Amino acid sequence: MNALSIEGLDVTLGDLPVVRGLDLYARPGEFVSILGPSGSGKSTTFGVLTGAVTPDRGDIRITGDALRTGDSRVAFMPQKDALLPWRTVLGNVTLGLEVRGTKRSVAREKVRPLLEPFGLDGFENRYPAQLSGGMRQRAALLRTVAQEQPVLLLDEPFGALDALTRSQMQRWLQGMWEKYRWTVLLITHDVREALYLSDRVYVFSPRPARVAAEVAVEFERPRRPELIGDPAFAALEAELLKQLIG
Ligand SMILES: Nc1ncnc2c1ncn2[C@@H]1O[C@H](COP(=O)(O)OP(=O)(O)OP(=O)(O)O)[C@@H](O)[C@H]1O
Known about the structure:
Elements: E1 4-13, E2 16-26, E3 31-35, H1 42-50, E4 57-62, E5 65-66, E6 74-77, H2 89-93, H3 95-99, H4 104-115, H5 133-145, E7 151-155, H6 163-180, E8 184-187, H7 191-197, E9 200-204, E10 211-216, H8 231-245
Parallel strand pairs: 3-8, 3-9, 6-7, 7-8
Antiparallel strand pairs: 1-2, 1-4, 4-5, 9-10
């Protein structure tokens, strides 16, 4: 059974057809990326999964059961403003659990063992403005995974980081995924990031979004950073860029 499946999704925003006939899925423990032109409807698709956007039609299932109004079976890390500036790191990383009704003290105990692997040990009482960009994104990701939902949605988590930090974060996330094997759906504009991290990559068409291409990424795991210099990697990167640019 798939962790997530979307069949025949149509979304119209105002008069604008944004998604038409979109089909995609993610198996349990699979890392799946979505690449697509800017404005093609990627975040809108995530909006449908989080309940922020109402679709015209479509069959959406999480672990086999239809998505419901107010469904909490996806944990979402937004593109921007993921952390509340007035809450400490600990207050931010427990927020997802607290919103779901977990008592603050219980939520704190739950996230504590994760502070170290997320590189946040000793920083729990700092505020977001006192952290580096990479640390902020790790805190936002910790808040998302702590919710222990069957599907993680990450909308361009490293998009605003400088190139060096981004590449460090990609390596770190790859290692964390090896350890925890979350089911991830990642939106990114970075073809290398998609290839380095994913088991499969979907390429969306220009709006209205549908799947223009689906590419299996079969490099063995765990993946070493040198993989991106491999000719087979470069060939797949070129193929994806061609699909993306047309
Ligand atoms: N509330 C809204 N009403 C009308 N149009 C909207 C609304 N929200 C988004 N749109 C439009 O829907 C289209 C798809 O937006 P969306 O944010 O899903 O694209 P995207 O693929 O995630 O883009 P990007 O890669 O730039 O983040 C865009 O043209 C956007 O302007």
